[in-house]
Every structure is written in structure tokens, then in C-alpha cells.
């Protein structure tokens, strides 16, 4: 479990093919792995990955082919990734509850400065667009953000300078792909609504 508050950025140093996926070696930079052990989870661009080996500030993660097929940014050697360690019970929840399970890949339509901030506009896959709400939370490449506007499958976010500076967002351009995770609360609302409808139908039978 994560909060979407990125603790630092790392760089994919190498990608080694496996039988069904790849092994990433990530230089975690200033993240600090002193409190991390083999088997712990670290989110890379919003994807929950398990540490399988460590060498100083470098951590290795095995990524399945299925994960690679439904995410973005984990298959580029030299690519920068947003990093966050898994939450501890006594940690502050500065963002929102993030599972590290990507729901879909979005396309950046616009990334442009507006005053001191930046406007980020993303087109979400239609399959998850209905879960994105104005003033609701969404995770973009592992970063917890608040949605400003929603129009059909497109939504916009206002990014403060600090967020741009300490994440990979500073490299975004129109056409870039980003990992999206919807708010877990939306999942439960949908399930509860569907269950009530199922119960109503069953009671009529």
C-alpha cells in the first residue's frame, strides 16, 4: 500500500530479459534503501514491484510480461521513474490510498505552464474514465493528484512547481504515456451499487 507521495526518482540502469518478463536494475538515487529488505515493495511509476536483490543504492525487480503489457515506463533503459516505499502503519497518509495496481495507461494531451504552475491534460482509457471525478483523487505515474476538470475521457490537473520539480513530470510531453490508478473508493462504490442491483433482481425472482 502506498500514499502517492513520491519520495524520489530513480533511473533504470539495466533491463535483463527473463523467461516471462524482465529484471529491472534501478539506481534509486537518494531514496535510501537502509530500511528496505529483500521482499519489500517499492512503487516504480505507480507499479508495485518486489525487491529481489540489492546492491548499495541499486535495487532489482522482476516484472512479468503481463505487467509490462498493461503499464508504461518500465521498459526503457535509462528511463527515469518515480519511487515510493510501501507505507508503514504509523506513516502519514499525505496523498490517498494507492494500491500500486495500474488500471490503465493514459495519453498526455497537454503539459504547459500556467503562471507558476503547469496544466496537465490526460486522455484516460474509456474503460476507467467513469471512475474519474472532479475534485477526486487519481494516481498518475505513482503521484497522488487532484482532478480539476473532467470532460468525457479527458481530465485536467494543476501541478504546483514542487511536484514538477521532484517527479518525472518535468519530462512530460504531449503523446507521452502515463500509468493511471483510480481511487479505490470508486471501486467499492461501483461494487456496492452493482450488488444492490443484483440483490434487487434476486428478490424479484
Concise structural overview:
This protein is α+β, with helices and mostly antiparallel strands.
What brief labels describe this structure?
205 residues, alpha+beta, six-stranded antiparallel beta barrel, 18% helix, 42% strand
Could you explain how this protein is built, in words?
The chain is of the alpha+beta class and 205 residues long. Helix content is 18%, strand content 42%. It contains four helices and twelve strands, in the order E-E-E-E-E-H-E-E-E-H-E-E-E-H-E-H. It has helices at residues 65-69, 126-129, 161-166, 184-204, and strands at residues 8-18, 21-27, 41-44, 47-55, 58-64, 80-85, 104-114, 117-123, 137-140, 143-151, 154-159, 177-182. Strands 1-2-5-4-3-6 form a six-stranded antiparallel β-barrel. The longest helix has 21 residues, at 184-204. The radius of gyration is 18 Å and the shape is globular. The chain starts with 7 loop residues before the first strand and ends with a helix. The mean pLDDT is 95.
Annotate the secondary structure layout:
Elements: E1 8-18, E2 21-27, E3 41-44, E4 47-55, E5 58-64, H1 65-69, E6 80-85, E7 104-114, E8 117-123, H2 126-129, E9 137-140, E10 143-151, E11 154-159, H3 161-166, E12 177-182, H4 184-204
Antiparallel strand pairs: 1-2, 1-6, 2-5, 3-4, 3-6, 4-5, 7-8, 7-12, 8-11, 9-10, 9-12, 10-11
Q: What is the SS-derived class? A: alpha+beta
Radius of gyration from CA coordinates: 18 Å
Secondary structure: helix percent = 10-25%
- Residue fraction in strands: 35-45%
Low-confidence stretches: none
Q: In this structure, how is the largest beta sheet organized?
A: 6 strands, antiparallel, barrel
Instruction: Give the strand line-up of the largest sheet.
Output: 1-2-5-4-3-6
Overall geometry comes to globular
What is the element string, with H for helices and E for strands? EEEEEHEEEHEEEHEH
Distance between the termini: 41 Å
How many DSSP E strands?
12
| Structure annotation, total helices | 4
Amino acid at each position: 500500500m502506498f500514499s502517492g507521495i513520491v519520495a524520489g526518482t530513480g533511473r533504470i540502469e539495466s533491463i535483463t530479459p527473463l523467461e516471462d518478463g524482465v529484471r529491472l536494475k534501478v539506481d534509486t538515487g537518494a531514496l535510501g534503501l537502509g530500511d528496505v529488505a529483500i521482499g519489500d515493495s517499492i512503487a516504480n511509476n505507480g507499479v508495485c514491484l518486489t525487491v529481489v536483490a540489492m546492491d548499495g543504492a541499486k535495487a532489482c525487480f522482476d516484472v512479468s510480461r503481463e505487467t509490462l503489457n498493461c503499464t508504461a515506463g518500465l521498459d526503457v533503459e535509462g528511463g527515469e521513474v518515480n519511487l515510493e516505499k510501501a507505507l508503514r502503519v504509523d506513516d502519514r497518509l499525505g496523498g490517498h490510498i494507492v494500491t500500486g495496481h495500474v488500471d490503465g495507461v493514459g495519453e498526455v494531451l497537454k503539459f504547459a505552464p500556467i503562471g507558476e504552475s503547469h496544466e496537465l491534460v490526460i486522455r484516460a482509457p474509456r474503460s476507467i474514465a467513469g471512475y474519474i471525478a472532479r475534485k477526486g483523487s487519481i494516481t498518475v505515474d505513482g503521484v497522488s493528484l487532484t482532478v480539476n476538470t473532467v470532460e468525457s475521457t479527458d481530465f485536467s490537473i494543476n501541478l504546483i512547481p514542487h511536484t514538477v520539480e521532484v517527479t518525472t513530470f518535468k519530462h512530460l510531453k504531449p503523446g507521452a504515456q502515463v500509468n493511471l490508478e483510480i481511487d479505490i473508493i470508486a471501486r467499492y462504490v461501483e461494487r456496492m451499487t452493482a450488488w444492490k442491483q443484483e440483490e434487487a433482481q434476486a428478490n424479484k425472482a
